[in-house]
Task: inverse folding
């Protein structure tokens, strides 16, 4: 009798949870899970990939990258380029409106962009504008940058120090969203943040200047633990799950009416040497160790929908085909040890791995390989905060570095290599690379510019300061009744663009 009661209870819960999905469909409400919440949705303060997805609900950028990877007008309805690429003149969409019903003006735009450059600014995209906009390095706190010139209520110009081809792509980054002057909490995006707490509630902004949204409301909760995620999936309490690590996807049990979608997010994950370790001072040793690890990483059993073996720093889709058409020389463990046993036998090696950002089978086999080389291995599987701590304290010998590019250009991926960066992978000499990149950055011919980048990057990669591992994509777990647009070649998927499909 008890067994029958349990079965009835389980069956009833199933009906109720499916019913709640039907209710959400009717109400055009979507339940979303992300790993964590930001402290605020001020675009200047946010740096996390998934937090930017929330920023895009509330705020809008001047331009955006659509689901086909094409540049589209957004708050800026049109623009023109003058003075050999050094002047951009923008016209603001006449119907663009903030959530307090005031119009978006050129003054709002000038203030929104200038505040990223102020000395106190924590902006992660500050560096992309600093060397581009004229006079940016001399700006004072609270000042509107003089090279951002307000022409009228609905037009303005940006004056560049030198022509810079990726400028419009940079302006599509969510952190450079336009906010109301002196009120960075007030956005002009497709949704309004109604409530914060355990669940953040976003509702449709009916006066949004673009097409009407199909979705009325998004309910967002933070779910980090895989067991909690599976529990919410089983009970159909969540419709979209973002941020499931690659290491957990393979073991995640999905109900039959859920699927996963790959979002091509232009990300990489490599291993970086700590050059303070004297055994790494020999370039030929670094080269052979790199090739040995790359031989392991390229084995087909680690190949998945979400990670592909890399031969260089940048993921597919950024550089010319010639950059990627390289093979990794084969080297056996035996031939490596015959040559380099003195560098590895009974030597201590601290390996810091970003936990769950790689397939667990690869991580296990990497540990086995390093131990078989004779290393006394210490492995630290670190969350984000712990990884940053080890980077800043240079407390590692080898450290894994996952990074999501900010826009579809080499410059969108080089921040971790910059010796001025707050979060720098490795501690190798970067002066030669940065000098070559600086010469290439402002070339106004696209093909010639990429050729210079390719030469600079390959020269740097041949120093073997890091071991290329994988180009990464992220998974969106979703109810199959939802339409989830593609997100190839842009920073991330747009939550507000996801909606329930009408059943025929």
Result:
């Amino acid at each position: 009798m008890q067994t029958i009661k349990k079965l009835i209870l389980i069956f009833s819960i199933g009906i109720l949870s499916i019913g709640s999905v039907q209710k959400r469909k009717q109400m055009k409400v979507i339940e979303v899970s992300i790993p964590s919440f930001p402290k605020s949705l001020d675009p200047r303060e946010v740096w996390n990939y998934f937090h930017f997805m929330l920023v895009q609900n509330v705020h809008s950028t001047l331009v955006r990258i659509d689901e086909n990877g094409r540049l589209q007008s957004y708050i800026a309805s049109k623009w023109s380029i003058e003075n050999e690429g050094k002047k951009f003149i923008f016209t603001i969409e006449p119907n663009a409106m903030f959530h307090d019903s005031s119009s978006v003006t050129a003054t709002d735009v000038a203030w929104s962009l200038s505040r990223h450059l102020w000395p106190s600014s924590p902006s992660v995209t500050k560096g992309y504008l600093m060397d581009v906009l004229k006079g940016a390095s001399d700006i004072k706190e609270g000042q509107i940058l003089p090279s951002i010139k307000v022409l009228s209520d609905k037009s303005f110009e940006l004056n560049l120090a030198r022509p810079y081809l990726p400028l419009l792509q940079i302006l599509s980054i969510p952190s450079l969203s336009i906010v109301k002057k002196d009120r960075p909490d007030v956005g002009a995006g497709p949704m309004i943040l109604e409530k914060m707490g355990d669940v953040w509630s976003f509702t449709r902004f009916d006066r949004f200047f673009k097409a009407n949204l199909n979705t009325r409301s998004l309910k967002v909760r933070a779910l980090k633990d895989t067991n909690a995620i599976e529990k919410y999936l089983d009970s159909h309490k969540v419709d979209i799950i973002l941020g499931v690590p690659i290491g957990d996807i393979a073991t995640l049990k999905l109900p039959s009416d859920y699927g996963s979608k790959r979002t091509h997010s232009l990300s990489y994950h490599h291993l970086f040497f700590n050059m303070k370790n004297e055994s790494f001072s020999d370039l030929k040793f670094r080269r052979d160790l790199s090739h040995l690890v790359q031989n392991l990483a390229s084995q087909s059993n680690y190949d998945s929908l979400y990670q592909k073996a890399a031969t260089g720093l940048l993921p597919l889709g950024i550089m010319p085909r010639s950059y990627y058409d390289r093979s990794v020389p084969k080297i056996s463990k035996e031939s490596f040890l015959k040559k380099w046993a003195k560098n590895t036998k009974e030597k201590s090696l601290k390996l810091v791995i970003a936990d769950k950002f790689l397939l667990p089978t690869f991580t296990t086999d990497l540990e086995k390989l390093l131990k078989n080389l004779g290393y006394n291995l210490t492995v630290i599987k670190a969350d984000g905060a712990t990884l940053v701590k080890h980077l800043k304290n240079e407390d590692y010998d080898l450290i894994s570095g996952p990074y999501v590019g900010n826009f579809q250009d080499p410059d969108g991926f080089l921040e971790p290599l910059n010796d001025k960066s707050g979060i720098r992978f490795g501690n190798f000499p970067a002066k030669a690379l940065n000098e070559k990149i600086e010469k290439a950055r402002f070339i106004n011919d696209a093909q010639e510019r990429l050729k210079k980048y390719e030469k600079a990057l390959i020269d740097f990669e041949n120093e073997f300061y890091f071991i290329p591992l994988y180009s990464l994509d992220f998974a969106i777990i979703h109810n199959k009744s939802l339409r989830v647009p593609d997100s190839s070649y842009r920073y991330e998927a747009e939550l507000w663009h996801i909606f329930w499909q009408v059943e025929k």
In short: Confidence is low (pLDDT under 50) at residues 3-18. The chain has three domains: 2-38+190-261+480-500, 59-176, 265-473.
